[in-house]
Amino acid sequence: xxxxxTLNTIPAQFLEWLVSARMRFLNDMKEGxxxxxxxxxxxxxxxxxxxxxxxxxxxxxxxGLLPKKESLEYYTDVFEGVLAGVRTMPWNESMHKRVEVIGxxxxxxxxxxxxxxxxxxIFEGKALDNLRGNSYTSLLYVGMASKYNGxxxxxxxxxxxxxxxxxxxxYYKFLLxxxxxxxxxxxxxxxxxxxxxxxxxxLEVRDKSPWSRTSKQPDAGDLT
Length: 224
Hints:
By secondary structure, the protein is of the alpha+beta class. The chain has helices spanning 12-30, 69-85, 95-106, 126-133, 170-180; strands at 4-7, 44-48, 56-60, 63-67, 112-121, 136-147, 150-165, 196-207.
């Protein structure tokens, strides 16, 4: 089997899965359905510390897509505006406003920059310590997508170089506003602060989606 590797960008089939999975999650929230584990937002992150008996540290991080640079400030302002507007409302009653505003971003795949990912640091643990010494990381995404003939299993590894973001960075401000839209919803553990953000520059994406050996190996387009 020849491994499928894409350089410097998230391939369309995986970008579409990340977007559609988010939209399904938002719709389930809006309709009051039981929420499932959000695998498209929670990859396993691997970082490295040379010289230790077990040099690889693995943790689950909330890592998501980011808007294109030219619209980053716009969406940050819109999200912050909604948060200010619902401040005096009961949190549950504000859900539709919060879901609607993030749905504007996720309604069009062209809104996203396929060369970067981002997330917030919470616990300042081993992953952050490792990244300060070695800025490279690998993310493993695993999930499922509906297809016309059943379920398609999806798995891909994103290898990238990490920039640690301070609170004045525009990407940090977007990530914080995105998180705070749903800070008090039941699927989040409330956190008082996020000391840093992460900007992950995509260097390569390895397609690890399983397929049956009884049939031909699928082309990349078959995974959409």
